[in-house]
């Protein structure tokens, strides 16, 4: 069965006509060990609900059984659609179902409207009813019911792993260093730097503020911390070297993520790490326009308007937190390395009063404009006005 072709950025509603007499609609409430599957079977008045073990093959048998019930009621099933909320299980089930002729979707959890009661009842059965109502509205092509997440391929998911692992390792390195400094500060030692190359050799020579050597147990603890730190640093180096190797091995004429990374890394002030993060987290996604790019990064505002009240609650923070953090950091670097660019001049003109509050607000606006400019750059090759580039390798 050929599934309807999805259009660009059609995740807020379905563009395929819904024929309820020939469509089997299924929603899945997924748990760690059990799934609750609810269905709407054409020709069958009851809405079946099946609790089962977390087994994709058993799920397929349930769908086949419901298809047979519809056939017994005189309805021929030509389309099977299934949906579940995005969560810890990721997208593997949607890919697996699509390979077997099921039109599978992954719902964005925050896009499903829920009751605002202080203590609203919540059970898996009620959740499946809510998901079914939202999913049916989405299938009818109505907006504002829910949004679907883009289902990445295994390759696209895997491409994000090195950058995310490196981010975690950087946090581990910081945590280990801070713990060592905290341990040493209890003995009045503040000049020791665990990140230096010969720090491990100098550890045995450290003396407290009272002139004595470090206690035995403390020295042993610090040596173990140094061993952990060495492992973390080696793993960070391994990830960085492997990324550079893949970039060098990729063909220069290749039109894909590697070419985008090389293009963005040519901008003075942007490194390979930032370029890799932006490309794999956002720039390779099929987003409609610049506004969609800014919304995905969570760099848009949250207006609060009621009656005469008009105010902004700050950033929406509803998008990709990694992109948002990276772009705000990049925006500050951009002001240092691209002082003559049109974007930097735009920022200085609006932050001329020198107030910290103004600069804090405008740096977010600069990050948003810069992200959209980078998105256009990877799409059309248009270089932002006044931006200096490194020579092509």
Q: How many strand elements? A: 7
Radius of gyration: 27 Å
Total number of helical segments? 12
| Largest beta-sheet characterization | 5 strands, mixed
Order of helices and strands: EEEHEHEHHHHHHHEEHHH
- Summed over residues and divided by their number, the pLDDT gives a mean of 90
What is the end-to-end distance? Answer: 47 Å
Strand content: 5-15%
Uncertain segments are 1-7
| Strand order in the largest sheet | 3-2-1-4-5
Instruction: Give the structural class.
Output: alpha/beta
Q: What form results from the Cα inertia axes?
A: globular
Number of domains: 3
Share of helical residues: 40-55%
Word description of this protein:
The chain has 393 residues and is an alpha/beta fold. The chain has three domains: 23-139, ATPase, nucleotide binding domain (Nucleotidyltransferase, domain 5, 2-Layer Sandwich); 156-249; 257-380, no CATH class. Helix content is 48%, strand content 11%. The protein has helices spanning 56-72, 92-98, 124-139, 154-185, 199-203, 216-249, 257-265, 272-283, 290-296, 321-337, 342-350, 356-380; strands at residues 23-30, 34-40, 49-53, 79-85, 103-107, 301-306, 309-315. A five-stranded mixed beta sheet has the order 3-2-1-4-5, sandwiched between helices. A two-stranded antiparallel sheet has the order 6-7. The longest helix has 34 residues, at 216-249. The radius of gyration is 27 Å and the shape is globular. The two termini are 47 Å apart. Mean pLDDT is 90; it is low at 1-7.
């Amino acid at each position: 069965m050929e599934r309807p072709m999805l259009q660009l950025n059609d995740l807020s509603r379905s563009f395929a006509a819904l024929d309820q007499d020939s469509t089997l609609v299924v929603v899945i409430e997924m748990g760690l060990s059990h799934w609750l599957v609810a269905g709407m079977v054409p020709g069958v008045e009851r809405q079946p609900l099946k609790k089962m073990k977390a087994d994709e093959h058993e799920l397929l048998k349930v769908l086949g059984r419901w298809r047979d019930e519809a056939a017994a009621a005189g309805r021929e099933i030509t389309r099977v659609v299934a949906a579940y909320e995005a969560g810890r299980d990721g997208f593997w089930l949607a890919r697996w179902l699509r390979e077997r002729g099921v039109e599978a979707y992954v719902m964005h959890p925050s896009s499903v409207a829920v009751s605002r009661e202080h203590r609203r009842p919540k059970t898996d059965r009620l959740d499946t009813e809510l998901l079914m109502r939202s999913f049916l509205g989405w299938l009818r092509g109505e907006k504002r019911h829910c949004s679907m997440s883009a289902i990445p391929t295994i390759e696209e998911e895997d491409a994000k792993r090195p950058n995310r692992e490196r981010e975690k390792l950087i946090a581990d390195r910081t945590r280990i260093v801070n713990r060592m400094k905290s341990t040493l500060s209890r003995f009045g030692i503040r000049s020791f730097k665990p990140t230096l190359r010969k720090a491990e050799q100098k550890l045995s020579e450290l003396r407290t503020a009272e002139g004595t050597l470090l206690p035995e147990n403390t020295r042993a603890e610090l040596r173990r911390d140094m061993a952990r730190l060495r492992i973390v640093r080696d793993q960070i180096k391994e990830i960085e070297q492997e990324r550079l190797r893949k970039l060098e091995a990729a063909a220069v004429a290749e039109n894909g993520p590697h070419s985008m990374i090389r293009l963005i890394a040519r901008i003075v002030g942007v490194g390979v790490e930032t370029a890799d993060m932006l490309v794999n987290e956002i720039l390779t996604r099929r987003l409609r326009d610049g506004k969609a790019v800014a919304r995905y990064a969570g760099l848009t505002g949250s207006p609060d308007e009621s009656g005469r009240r008009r105010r902004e609650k700050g950033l929406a923070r509803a998008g990709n937190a990694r992109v948002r953090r990276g772009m705000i950091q990049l925006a500050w670097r951009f002001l240092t390395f691209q002082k003559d660019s049109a974007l930097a001049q735009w920022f200085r003109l609006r932050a001329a009063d020198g107030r910290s509050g103004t600069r804090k607000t405008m740096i977010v606006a600069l990050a948003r404009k810069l992200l959209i400019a980078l998105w256009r750059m990877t799409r059309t090759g248009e270089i932002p006005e006044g931006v200096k580039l490194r020579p092509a390798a």
